[in-house]
Design brief:
This protein is α/β, with parallel strands linked by helices. It is built from 7 helices and 10 strands. It has one domain (34-45, 77-233): P-loop containing nucleotide triphosphate hydrolases (Rossmann fold).
Length: 234
C-alpha cells in the first residue's frame, strides 16, 4: 500500500435486508489515514450498517469494501475474525465489556486472541490504562466503574492490537454529559496523535469536537460530505 492509498475504499456498496428498501444504496466512500470521520444521519439511515460492513461483520449485496488494502467483503468467517483482530478496534454504546473479567483482563483479551506474547501484552495494557487514566482501576471489575470509566476501558481494549482503524458506534450514547465530554476529549486526542477514527453518532457536539470530516446519510445514501480544515474545537 502506498502512503496515499486510502485506509477505507468503499465502492458502489448496496446492502438490502429482505424485501425492504436498501439500508445502504450505492455508497462510495474513501477515507484516508489520519481522518476522524463522523457519520451522521437519522435513525435507520444506514450508519451502523456502514460500520458493520467496514468491520467485516456484514457483507454487501453489491460493491466492494477494501480496508488497508484488503478486500473484506468476501472474507470467510475465520478470515474476517482475523482481519478484525489485526486491523479494527471497536467501541460500542453499551461498552460490551465482560463483567466477570477485571479491567486488565478485558483489555488483554484482544492481544491474547491475536497471540501476542504475554509479557508484551501486559506491558501494552498497563501503558494504555495509564494513558487513559484508568490504571487505578486495573484490578477492578467493570461493574464497579462509572459509565465514562467503562467506556475508557472499552477504548483501551479497542486500541490493544494497535488497529489501523478505530470504529465507534454511539460511544457517548449511554453517558451523562460529563462522561461524554471525557470520551469526546479522548477521541479527539487519539486522532490528534494520528489514529484514524470512524465514528457513528447522534451527538453533534462529539462530531464537532472530534471529527475532521462529516458524512451524512439519509435513506442509505450519502447526502453530504464535509471536510473541516481541523476539528472545530482545536
Ligand atoms: N439485521 C437486519 N435485518 C433487517 N433489517 C435490518 C438489519 N439491520 C439493519 N436493518 C435495517 O436497515 C436500515 C438501516 O439500519 P441501521 O442500523 O444501519 O441504521 P442506523 O442509521 O444505525 O440507525 P440508528 O441511529 O437507529 O442506530 C434500517 O431500516 C434497519 O431496520
Ligand atoms: Mg445504529
Amino acid at each position: 500500500m502506498t502512503a496515499t492509498a486510502p485506509v477505507i475504499d468503499i465502492r458502489d456498496v448496496t446492502r438490502t435486508y429482505g424485501q425492504g428498501p436498501p439500508a445502504l444504496a450505492e455508497v462510495t466512500l474513501s477515507v484516508r489515514a489520519g481522518e476522524a470521520l463522523a457519520v451522521l444521519g437519522p435513525s435507520g439511515s444506514g450508519k451502523s450498517t456502514l460500520l458493520n460492513l467496514i468491520a467485516g461483520l456484514d457483507r454487501p449485496n453489491a460493491g466492494s469494501v477494501t480496508v488497508a488494502g484488503l478486500r473484506v467483503d468476501g472474507l470467510s468467517e475465520a478470515g474476517s475474525a482475523r482481519y478484525r483482530r489485526a486491523t479494527i478496534g471497536m467501541v460500542f454504546q453499551f461498552f460490551n465489556l465482560l463483567d466477570d473479567l477485571t479491567v486488565t483482563d478485558n483489555v488483554l483479551l484482544p492481544a491474547q486472541l491475536a497471540g501476542v506474547h504475554r509479557a508484551e501484552a501486559r506491558r501494552r495494557a498497563a501503558g494504555l490504562l495509564e494513558y487513559l487514566r484508568i490504571d487505578r482501576h486495573a484490578a477492578a471489575y467493570p461493574g464497579r466503574l462509572s459509565g465514562g470509566e467503562r467506556q475508557r476501558v472499552a477504548v483501551a481494549r479497542a486500541l490493544m492490537n494497535r488497529p489501523a482503524l478505530l470504529l465507534a458506534d454511539e460511544p457517548t450514547g449511554a453517558l451523562d454529559s460529563a462522561s461524554g465530554e471525557d470520551v469526546r476529549e479522548l477521541l479527539t486526542e487519539l486522532n490528534a496523535e494520528g489514529q484514524t477514527i470512524i465514528l457513528v453518532t447522534h451527538d453533534l457536539g462529539l462530531a464537532e469536537s472530534c471529527a475532521t470530516r462529516t458524512v451524512e446519510l439519509v435513506d442509505g445514501r450519502i447526502v453530504r460530505d464535509t471536510t473541516h480544515a481541523t476539528a472545530v474545537a482545536r
